[in-house]
Here is the input.
Amino acid sequence: MGRYVLNRLIVSLITAWVLVTIVFFLVRLLPGDPFLSEKITPEIRANMMKYYGLDKPLHIQYVTYLKNLLKGDFGYSLRYKNRTVNEVISQAFPYSADLGIRAVILATTAGIILGIIAALNRNKGWDYLSMFIAIVGVSVPSFVIGPILQYVFATKLNLLPVSQWKSFAHTIMPTFALSLSSLALVARLMRASMLDVVNQDYIKTAKSKGLSPFQIIWKHQIRNAILPVITVLGPVTATLLTGTFVVEQIFAIPGLGKFYVLGIQNLDYSLVLGMTTFYGLFLIAANFVVDIIYGLVDPRIRIAR
Amino acid sequence: MQVSNSEITQEMFEHVGKNVSQMEAIARPSLTYWQDAWRRLKQNKVAMLGLIIIILYTILALVGPYMTPYDYRTTNTDEIDQPPSAKHWFGTDTLGRDLWARTWMGARVSLAIGFLSAVLNAFIGVIIGGISGYFGGKVDMIIMRAIDILYAIPYMIIVILMMVVLGQGIMPLVVAMIAVGWLGMARLVRGQILQLKEQEFVLAAKVLGASHSRIIFKHLIPNALGVILVNLTMSVPSAIFTEAFLSFIGLGVVPPQSSWGQLAYYGIQSFRVRPYQLFIPAFFISTTMLSLNLLGDGLRDALDPRLRS
Here is the structure.
């Protein structure tokens, strides 16, 4: 297990290094050299000079950049002279993370439960319901589901608050809108996996031992069927956490999505790149955790690698 | 009359001759792999419905903007936010632009981005995956490690970074999407090639002195084409979704140019008062994504030789 963790850690670190190197060179490719723009005040320019060491040769700039990142410093805003990326992140990321984590939990638990119910009731009502959700999930994007929910549950029925992020009632619609497509994916995978496991020999053995159907399903079928579902947790987490940007727009949630859009509209490259770097590193770390969980749950994985 | 075995004589037999032309006649038309796949796809009603919808939208994208006298760029302050009517079939937007024209101009952009980036991704992925799988060894190891690392960086993060640098528009969108979009296809093709290259027909080709490129492009890739085609079909809707996602955070195509994602984005601003401005583009995005997914499922069933009877 130790070797497996080390192996995954090294891969994650290399990935992180590749990401920040790409960002470093992209900054140098930016159109029109934003650091020389007339609109930038002398203070910001001085900040920039100090931060990126722009008067020094490229390789020293690169080292400075890496050092700043290692200190956990993601850079400055080009637009506001006293705003740093770190401030924006500490102010806005908790909202995005809150929404993202709720969506991950809903998508995985509800998806797995729905998949199990569908597989156990094959070709009956529940199965058709899960198929219907799967079809809606693949074809209707979150930015369509969100407004429809708003229209039905807030504007027409007046059951839930239209937007913002203040109480549990405020979180219901954004979480559901964000997680539906991933929920559908997890449910479909879980259903297929359950139906696959049913035909395995160890289920036959369990039946012939005279175990109760509940014991067979709970101890043998579900436990084995859940493994392939865990593999998609990494991509699902990435999809949901980046997906928050769109859902935040719709429900007026003060998360990172808002600053992203503002930064892009203001041509505040430094802010956008800093936030993207942070997000990328966060997701790489999340993926690492998922890999470790997968190794813990399925011993075959850590031996094979 | 009873005839015992010993009494069978040569006169009892008649020589009928050999009709060579009849022997060689083909009883049923022989079908190639693709004809057979097409025949099976035609039997799949759901997949055919998907195909028909896609063809219909493509035709409307081509001719739709010319079906109304209104230009998709022309603003008209006298006719802002009109609901759908006989004059403006899909209504008008907050600047008085005709939404029928904008929807189908947007369809051009959305469909073009979807198909173009899917095809280019497939092209790059097939070449790199093919080389990696065929040569194996060190080449394979280096390519696959590189792919593993790039794959671990979230796709959306790379696309956003590329868009920030490249600026907005259709070509930057396509370039950003193919920057890392080919990774999945390369992995898939490599896996296929690894299986196929051990088979006898490859050995036969080698013995006959076929060159590496001939074996890869004439023998291996045509055999993997079914899987490639299914994956390509499935990647079109995700490209359309990516375009819409980017429009939402302000990195999509720039007005007056339109796309379905951008129309949906502007539709949401005034959605509670004028729901049609969102529902029309949302309907087309959703049905396109659904149709392509259904078509992809149908193709998978039609192209899988294991289902052949």
